[in-house]
Amino acid sequence: MKREEFTIDLEAACLERTSAVLEQPTGDQRDHVILLAHGAGLGKSSPFLAAMAKALVERGFPVMRFNYAYQEKKEETGGRRPPERKPILVQTHRAALEALAKRLPGRPVIFAGKSMGSRMGSYLAAEGAACAGLVMFGYPLHPSGKPEKLRVEQFPDLAVPALFLQGTRDKLADLDLLRLHLNDYAGAATLQVIEGADHDFKVPKSQNRSHAEMQAELADLVAAWATGFLG
């Protein structure tokens, strides 16, 4: 696996630049590349994101991860810091896309993300950014315990194919509500329900599935979806 670490220049965020890493297969590659965004609590080097990136690279995808600026500052200072406002997060996501396009020009890009990162990628796609498809690792449909506060306003503006990977124990996504509002999604939306998984795709010990096995399953689902819907 080839690995390149670099920084991305930012505007209007809490830092002037943030860190990123691009990992690529050393052998044959798929045409599509993946821009993988982190969730609200942990950054690009979280165990989940690092493992998913490795699994996706093993399946032929170049994968770029990046930190939103607030996360970069958290890691620099060791303090606590909430996510920035949505416009700043989306702008940072756009800067990451531009950095990826400079390194792998002309390649179609899949916006993938864990929780908040998937949501910001969908907003960026709804704004018209060049996006071949969306992969949602635990889309945060609503805050925990507040199903009335839905995050679906962008669905009618999303014409690209999307894969929603959601656990049955995910407290941030009532599956009945998600199924209902996917009717408003403009493109082809595929929902893959992961039995027993919570928001972090952890499953009960009774299932006898390790976290590594779960991540491999998720990567297989992404690869199969990309082959079927994106070619």
Query: H/E order of the elements?
Result: EEEHEHHEHEEHEH
Q: Strand sequence of the main sheet, in spatial order? A: 1-2-4-3-5-6-7-8
Strand portion: 15-25%
Anisotropy-based shape = globular
What is the mean pLDDT?
Answer: 96
- Radius of gyration, taken over Cα atoms and rounded to an integer in Å: 17 Å
N- and C-termini, Cα separation: 23 Å
User: Helix share of residues?
Assistant: 25-40%
Main sheet specs: 8 strands, mixed
Please count the beta strands (DSSP E, at least 2 residues each): 8
Q: Please work out how many helical segments DSSP would assign.
A: 6
Q: Determine the structural class based on helices, strands and strand pairing.
A: alpha/beta
Poorly predicted runs are none
SSE order and pairing:
Layout: E1 2-9, E2 17-24, E3 33-37, H1 47-58, E4 63-66, H2 69-77, H3 86-103, E5 109-114, H4 116-126, E6 133-137, E7 162-167, H5 175-181, E8 189-194, H6 211-230
Provide a brief overview of the structure.
33% of the residues lie in helices and 21% in strands. It has 231 residues and is of the alpha/beta class.
How would you portray this structure in words?
The protein is α/β, with parallel strands linked by helices and 231 residues long. Helices cover 33% and strands 21% of the residues. The protein has six helices and eight strands, in the order E-E-E-H-E-H-H-E-H-E-E-H-E-H. The chain has helices at 47-58, 69-77, 86-103, 116-126, 175-181, 211-230, and strands spanning 2-9, 17-24, 33-37, 63-66, 109-114, 133-137, 162-167, 189-194. It has an eight-stranded mixed beta sheet, sandwiched between helices. Helix 1 packs across helix 6 and helix 3 crosses helix 4. The longest helix has 20 residues, at 211-230. The model has no long low-confidence stretch (mean pLDDT 96).
